[in-house]
Amino acid sequence: VLPGGEPAKRPTAVDQILDDLCAYKLRRREPFLAIGGGCLLDIAGMAACLYRRGVPFVRVPTTLLSIVDASVGVKNGVDFCCRATDETYKNRIGSFYAPSSCLLDPAFIASQDKRNICNGFGEIVKLALVRSVDLFELLETHGAALVESRFQVTDNIPANVGTRIIDLSIQIMLEELGPNLWETTLERCVDYGHTFSKLLEMVPGADIMHGEAVNVDGFFCCILSYLRGYIPRETVQRVLNCMQSLALPTHSADLNPTLAWQSCKDAVEHRHGEQRIPLITEIGESICVSDITQEELSRALDVWKEFEP
């Protein structure tokens, strides 16, 4: 049993699983089950990849976030503290290693508190913004009620709407990741919300979960889209209303000009020489841009604050 959450997502946790697998003398073709949230599934995937040069494992995600995000794809990553810089980098080491299967049971969501469920919605909103107006409209109509009911059927929620939202989210992820499984193409719309959020999550003492950071990033990127003329102010307000109905944060004091520009520089490093930052052109459509400037970020931060609750 390992603790969950971002603080536990370290190489030492991978070592602990490797110790247990070795002590158990797990065979080359013998699978093990990884039951937990996204961070635990990342750690387990890394261990499965390394032990005996690869053993099968089964993902069993137990949070809304891990059901719609970590359950899909073949990436595993852990945070790494570099001794040379004395800085910790999010997902700096990892592997491409697929589970042998993934078991999805939305009943696990009922065991989560409200904040964890809202955290999962952060990734779902991201997918709706870049790929599906239908998914976005479902979130506008039923999202708040699903938060309150913990994805359980009530008199106010149609019987299949929770399942429909999860199915649509996973379908979008599969369609985006499947043709580009090894990320040979680095312009990926599913990276929406993952440019500024990485450093937001790594701010010392920051109390922000992954989906929350993705949502703050995603709303800031809406402001960038608005200032570029890609979307009207009415769309920005519509996105804000949806996010607030899901009790998701849209602002963070830690997102300042220094962090924003460093995030862009990190993106250039990680995405092979270009920013490749996804921005929406309307709800359900997106493009990648690589020409965001410091001046543009400063202006966007000023406008972003105008929408702060």
TrEMBL record:
**GO biological process terms held by the UniProt record:** antibiotic biosynthetic process
- The 3-dehydroquinate synthase N-terminal domain, residue ranges: 2-117
Q: Which InterPro entries match?
A: Dehydroquinate_synthase, DHQS/DOIS_N, DHQS_C, EEVS-like
Q: Which residues form the 3-dehydroquinate synthase C-terminal domain?
A: 120-258
Q: Which coenzyme or cofactor does it need?
A: NAD(+)
**Molecular-function annotations in GO:** 3-dehydroquinate synthase activity; metal ion binding; nucleotide binding
Q: Which CDD domains match?
A: EEVS
Keywords from the named record: Lyase, Metal-binding, NAD, Nucleotide-binding
Note one Pfam family from the annotation: DHQS_C
What PANTHER family does this protein's entry cite? Answer: 2-EPI-5-EPI-VALIOLONE SYNTHASE, 3-DEHYDROQUINATE SYNTHASE
How is this protein named in the record?
3-dehydroquinate synthase
**Native species:** Phaeodactylum tricornutum (strain CCAP 1055/1)
